[in-house]
Amino acid sequence: MSWFTENPMPPIVLAIVVEAILVVALAKTGRRSYLWAMLATAALAGAAVVIERLIVTPREEVVGALEEIRAIVEANDRGALLDRIDRGAVALRNRVQTDLSQLTVTEAKINDLRVLVNPDGQAAQADFIGVVHLRGGGTIVLRNNVALRFDVGLRKRPEDGRWVVTGAEYRPPVGGD
Questions:
Q1: CB 144 within 8 A of CB 165
Q2: What residues does 1 pair with on adjacent strands?
């Protein structure tokens, strides 16, 4: 039932269709009961949207974690970014430490995001195109926009329930397979 908990549009579209049918019926018959049915339909659609917003699925948690990580990258906060990378991913932590010490990120975006969460809801794989606006620092003289396809593994930390990156690979978005 993830279509309901991930997207409020199906109940809204269904309510609009039902409302349209009820408006036609009300116009043809003039019966007050159709007006009450219209109010009930609107109330049910509103309740469905509220319920959808209250339920946070594991996929939505991962998307939120990736958005938080994107904001951390954009803020150039190495400490916070390292906190969102699994302690066991030493090579990734070292690469991030090195890259961010030489570059300043001025903007970061996530496009074409696809997320697959394991059935147990404790691990996930994300695939997206990341667009990063960079400015060089130190020995690197650079002002550039970089687009890369990222494959990111994540897991949910049992101690605090936060999603952390366990691995990340990147390549050019087209023809980089």
A1: no
A2: none
What is d(CA 49, CA 44) in angstroms, rounded to the nearest whole number?
Answer: 9
The three-state secondary structure class of 116 is strand
Supply the pTM of this predicted model.
Answer: 0.71
Mean pLDDT in each 10-residue stretch from start to end of the chain (177 residues)? 66 92 92 93 91 83 93 90 92 87 86 92 93 70 75 92 91 64
Q: How far is CA 10 from CA 2, 3, 22, 45, in A?
A: 11, 8, 18, 10
123: Cβ–Cβ under 8 A, 6 or more apart, which residues? Answer: 117, 153, 154, 155, 156, 166
Packed helices 9-29 and 32-54: angle between N→C axes, nearest 10 degrees: 170
Report the pLDDT value the prediction gives residue 176, as an integer from 0 to 100.
47
